Known about the structure:
Blueprint: H1 2-65, H2 70-110, H3 117-137
Helix pairs in contact: 1-2, 1-3, 2-3
Amino acid sequence: MRLVAILDQASLLLSLSQTYVYRGIMATIRNLKIKTSTCKRLVKEFHSYEKEVEREAAKTADMKEKGADPHDLKQQENVLAESRMMIPDCIKRLEAALADLKGTLAELEEANQKEGPEIDDARSTIAEVEQFFQTAED
């Protein structure tokens, strides 16, 4: 009788520990999805800032050609400078997001979670962001 009670307790503890491990993995997978989305968003944001800089530079050049009011020209140059400042900031945030994504993926791989759509998406996003950085360096 006593052996049965001990086995029941052991079974219950095993079940609870598996539940907590499962919940931990699910939370980590949720974090992985969030961090993957963050990286994707930051790449889009970078491209958006690049386009904004091109657009503002063209507008500034056009204003100079047409002999715009010096005050208006100065304001436009300030807008262009602010747009240019956003690019290095975006790159820093993307580098940090990539490091977070890699860390979360490594955490899941250590827990033997090496397959699944979220993990495949994270791996492909990591490859895309690393390719993006290589392209940006060239």
